[in-house]
Amino acid sequence: MLIKRTLMAGLAALALAAGSAQAQTTLRIGLAEDPDVLDPTFARTFVGRIVFASLCDKLFDIDKDLKIVPQLATGYEWSDGGKALTIKLRPNVLFHDGEKMDAEAVRFSLDRHLNAPRSGRRAEISVVKTIEVADPLTVKLTLSTAFAPLIAQFTDRAGMIVSPKAAAAAGEQFGQKPVCAGPFKFVERVAQDRIVLDKFAQYWDAKNVHFDRVIYRPIPDASVRLANLKAGALDLIERMLATDVPASKTDAKLKVVPVKELGYQGITFNLANGEKAKAPVGADARVREAFELAIDRNVINQVVYNGEYTPTVQAVPPSSPFHNKSLKIPGRDVAKAKALLAAAGMPAPVVNLTVPNSPDLRQAAEIIQSMTKEAGFDVRINVMEFASSLNAAERGDFEAYILAWSGRPDPDGNLYIFVTKNGPLNYGKYTNADVDNLMNEQRAASDPAQRTALLGKVMEITAKDRPILYLWHRTNFIAHAARLSGFQPVPDALIRVQGMKLAN
Amino acid sequence: MLSFLARRLAQVLPTLAVVSVIVFGLQLLLPGDPALVLAGEERDEKVLAEIRERYGLDRPVHIQYARWMWGVLHGDLGESMRVGVPVGELVLSKLPVTLQLGSMAFAIACLIGIPAGVLSAVKKDSAWDYLANALSLWGLSTPNFWLGIMLILLVSVQLGWLPPSGYVSPWEDWRQSLATTIMPAFVLGNSIAAVFMRHTRAAMLQALSQDYVRTARAKGLTEAVVVNKHALRNALVPVVTLGALELGALFSGAVLTEQVFTIPGFGKLVVDAVFNRDYLVVQGVVLVTATAYVTLNLLADVAYFLINPRLRQE
Fold first, then answer.
1. pLDDT tens column, A180-189
2. Is B221 on the interface with A (CB under 8 A)?
3. Is B156 in the A-facing interface, judged by CB distances under 8 Å?
4. CATH topology of A2-56+182-260+476-502 equal to that of A60-165?
5. Residue B281 C-alpha, separation from nearest chain A C-alpha, in angstroms
6. CA end-to-end span of chain B, whole Å?
7. Is the CB of B36 inside 8 Å of chain A's CB atoms?
8. Hey, are the CB atoms on A390 and B51 less than 8 Å from each other?
C-alpha cells in the first residue's frame, strides 16, 4: 500500500513537471522523419520542406486551388516569347539577420541554387541562363529555352531566398544555422529530437503569425505520433495512417484534415532497361492492359486505405487544373484480360513485382497478386527496403515496381522526368517520340489552355502505353488538436503556420 | 604487471583494427547507393557525381578505407552526409542520453529482478514463487516495442501521467528528464529484470542448500540474516557477472526502445543512419561502441589481475 502510494505521488509529481513546461504560444508539430540539412540549396526531403514553410519564404507560393500567389515577389511578367522573366519584389522585407531582402539577394540565392556543387535545385531551374538586377526590387532572368513551369519551381525550395551575408559567412555550414526571410527564425536543432524556431518580429506578414515559437519533433512511428497528439504533447501531426482515421474522427479533442496529394502511386514497368525488360509485362502492351483489367483500384483503396485515397489512371491529380477529366478508370474485366493474354500468346505470364517495404504497400501488392491470379497472372512479390529498391530500379533490375511520386504543383514535374526519353526517373526506359514532342511543346507554351490540351494528349498516350500504371493519389492526413484553428490544407501538404491559432 | 598490460594491449590494437575493417566492409554489403539516397527525388547525373566526389564514394574501396582510417587516427570521424554535422559531435551528444537510459534501465532491472529472485527462492513453491516465475516469463516474452506502445497508450494517452516521448537532459531540468526517461527505462529494464530474477532464484536455491547456511541456521541466526548475509552475498557473485554480460543486451535493446519513445540516443542515431545510408555515421557509431567494449574488457582484465593474487604469480 505504502509503495503504491509513494509511486502514485511520484508519478503525479512527474506529471506536474511535464505539464508546466510548455507555454501556450508554442506550436508543436510532429513530423514523420527527421529532416535533412536545412539549407534550401541542398535539402532534399519532404519533411524538410515542412520546416522551410516556417523558416524560408519563397518568391511565390501556391494556394489551396493550386493557384500561384505572391510571397516575396509581388508579380511577374514573361517576355521575349517566354525566354525572359521579370520578377517584381516585395519592398521592405528583412532577413532574420536584419539584412535587406532585395534584388541582389535574389540574384545571389538563385545563383547559389544553380551553381553550388551538389545543389539539389540545379535540375529544377537549369534553364535559367542569366540573372540580372534591374533595380533594387526587380530581377530579370533570361532562359536558354522557353519554360512555362519555371514560376511553379519558384513556389518551392528553388524560390527560397537566403541572406547573402549569412550564406557567404557560413559557407557549407549554412544549413546548421539557416538565415532566411520566413515568419520564424532558426533557434536550435538537436538531431533526431527537435528543431526550434522563434517568431521573427519584423516578418512582412507578422500580423498573421500567432505563435511565439514553433517546435518540430520527428517521430517516425505513426502510432506513437498519434499517441503524442492525443496525450497533448503535440498540437499537430502529419501523415497519420489511413487506418487511424475513423477512430480519430470520432475523438472530440482531435480534428482530421485530409489533404489530397499532388503526386501518385503507380506501378512502373520495365520496358527497355536491360534484360528484365524481356519479361512478358514489359515486352507486350497487351499483357500490361490485361494486368490493368485484372485489378480493381477501388477494392484495394477500400481494403488497404479505408477508401480514403483517390483511384486514378493519370499522373496529375483532380485538384490540378491540368487534370484530364476525359480519362476514366476502367472497370475490372477478367474475361477481357484473359482474352488479351491469349491473344498475346501468354496465358499465364509471370510478373515479378518489386515492392518497397511498408505494411500498406505489401498488403496492396498481395491484393494485386490475388486479383491478377484470376486472369492467369503469376505475380511474385519481391519486398525490398526502399533505398535498395531504388538502386535496383536504376540498374534495370526489375520487371514491375510499385513506386510513388510526391508530386509537383506544375504537371510537368509529374511527367517530364518519368516519360520522356532521357528523363532521369524514367526507370523503365519508355520511349515515345510523340510524348517527347508534346512534352517539349507544352514547356514552351505560355498559354495555360494550350498546355492543358498538350498535357491531356500526353496522358492519353501514356494511359494506353502504360509505362506506369497509375493506381491512386494518396491522401496525407493531418491531424491536430481541436483547439487549434486556422489550418489551411494546401495540396502540397506543407504546414503553413500563418493564420493558425491555439485556443486555451 | 607491466608485461601483462603490454600483452593485453598488444591484443587490443589488432582487435580494433579488425573491427574497423569489418565495420567498413559491412556498409559495403548494404545494398543501396548512398549518393542516390542523398540525391533525393530529383535526379541529376552531374549532382550525383559531385556527391560521390565530395564523400569519396567514387574512389576504390581501399582508398576510401584508408582515408577514413587516417581521419579516425587523427580524431576525425568524418561528417554526416545527411545533416552535415561532424560524426564525432553527433556521437558525443547522443552518448550521454543512452548512458542515462541504460543506467536507469539497469537500476530498474536490479531493483525488480534481484528481490523477486530472492523472494521466489526463499518461498519456493509458494504462490509468491509462481507469481515471480509468471512475471519473469512475461518479461522475457514481451517485445520492447509492444510494451512501449502499450505503456504510452495507458500511461500517457489514457491517464496523462507522463509525456509519451522525447527527452530532456537532467542538467536542463531533472524532473522533466526523469519524466521522459522513466517509462523507456522500465521497458528496457523489464526483460533484463526477468533474466536477473531467474538467475538470482537459481543461485539462491543453490546457496540455501549449502552447509554453511545450515550451520548459520543451527547457530540460531534469524532467517533474515541467514538469507541476506549468508546466502544472498554468495548467490550474487554469478549474478554480477551476468549483469556485465547483460550490458550488451541493454545497448541492443536501446535501439528499439529509443525508436518507440523517440529518444535521441545512440540506438536511434544508428538506425536512422542505416536507413539513410549515412555511412560515416554508421561506421563512427559502431567503431565507438566496439572501442568502448574492448576498453571495458581490458579494464575488467586488469581488475581481475589486481584482485586475484594467483594471476599475479604467473
1. 999 999 999 9
2. no
3. yes
4. no
5. 12
6. 10
7. yes
8. no
Q: Which residues of chain B register pLDDT less than 70?
A: 1, 304, 307-314
Nearest CA-CA distance, residue B42 and chain A, Å: 7
Chain B residues close to A173, C-beta within 8 Å: 84
Put simply, the answer to whether B36 touches A231 (Cβ < 8 Å) is no
Of A224, A385, A390, the CB nearest to B36: A390
Sheet holding A310-311, edge to edge: A310-311, A468-473, A264-269, A400-405, A350-356, A378-384
The domain spans of chain A are 2-56+182-260+476-502, 60-165, 264-473
Smallest Cα distance from B286 to chain A, Å: 18
Is the pLDDT reported for residue A13 higher than 70? no
The three-state (H, E, C) secondary structure of A1-30, written as one string: CHHHHHHHHHHHHHHHHHHCCCCCCEEEEE
* Whether B164 and A405 lie within 8 Å, measured CB to CB: no
Which helix (H) or strand (E) is A243 found in, with range? none
Residues in B touching A174 (Cβ below 8 Å): none
User: Rounded CA gap, A227 and B153, in Å?
Assistant: 7
Tell me the fold of A60-165: Dipeptide-binding Protein; domain 1 (3.90.76)
What's the pLDDT score for residue B58?
A: 86
Q: How high is the pLDDT of residue A104?
A: 97
Q: What is the pLDDT of residue A151?
A: 95
Residue-wise pLDDT for A119-161, tens only, equals: 989 989 999 999 999 999 999 999 999 999 999 999 999 999 9
> Measured between CB atoms, does B153 come within 8 Å of chain A?
yes
Q: What is chain B's alpha carbon radius of gyration, rounded to the nearest angstrom? A: 24
Q: Which CATH number fits domain A264-473: 3.10.105.10, 3.20.20.70, 3.40.50.1000, 3.30.530.20?
A: 3.10.105.10
User: Chain B interface, mutation test: which of A119, A193, A229, A410, most B Cβ atoms within 10 Å?
Assistant: A193
List of chain A residues whose C-beta atoms are within 8 Å of the C-beta of residue B268? 192
Fold of A2-56+182-260+476-502: D-Maltodextrin-Binding Protein; domain 2 (3.40.190)
Beta bridge partners of residue A311, listed in sequence order? A472
How far apart, in Å, are the Cα atoms of B7 and each of A443, B1, B2, B16, B186? 72, 10, 9, 15, 41
Q: How many angstroms separate the CA atoms of B159 and B152, rounded?
A: 10
Summarize pLDDT for A332-371 with one digit per residue, the tens. Answer: 999 999 999 999 999 999 999 999 988 899 999 999 999 9
